[in-house]
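Our consortium's second objective concerns turning raw sequence data into structural hypotheses that experimental partners can test. To show how far this objective has progressed, the report includes one record in full. It was chosen at random from the queue rather than selected for favorable results. The single chain below, 241 residues long, was entered without modification.
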Amino acid sequence: MTELTKQDLLYKGKAKEMYSTEDPEVVWVHYMDQVTAFNGKKKVQMSGKGAANCNISSLIFKDLTANSIPNHFIEQIDDNNQLVKRVNIIPLETVVRNMASGSFERKFATEHLMKFEKPVVEFFYKSDELDDPFINESQAEALGVATPAQMTTMITIALQVNKRLKNIFLNMNIDLVDFKVEFGIDGTGNLILADEISPDSCRLIDKSTGNSLDKDVFRKGLGELVPVYDEILDRLKTVEA
């Protein structure tokens, strides 16, 4: 598969660039050294950030594949590049929460990091212009964004991912507070996990120190981000070895 080469730019997002390849069903993903927060309002270049996320996401997707969770990952090419299945992205962010934080904590005035008895699953409509508003099943259906059946499948897969990620991070002495995933429809019509899973899309807390090990370090100005991501990668390599 690695004989494929990067061709035309298809899409440039906040953290990744997507390119076509010689295979119409395969996309080349380049992880950039750019970190953003607050829907792109805060943006900085950080050397090594793209490589850390690419390596972390690749290891996690390999684990999910080994555990029969359908996803778009094909292979990692080098530190900053992957090959993935081409999908039509459903414009929803699926958020799974194990503890109260972020918008949930603000909206419901909960205790910080209050643990839930069962994971909470939420959907947000992907729109920078609208600031990614919360969206429910009937709203998504009315807007033609996703069908109820698709959203049920997304919840099922997201909870499978949560179970696997909690186990991985527990072995790294880390609490998985919450995470965001995206889904797409592949060339055969299957709904599969897409995008990335990295400290950009997860909230992670060190069980020993209580320190954030994710993009909150950047959001809240808590210190240097790349060394934190490198620490996650080092721990992940140990448990996935």
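The partners drew two points from this record. The mean pLDDT is 95. The chain has two domains: 9-85, 88-223. Both points have been shared with the crystallography group to help prioritize constructs.
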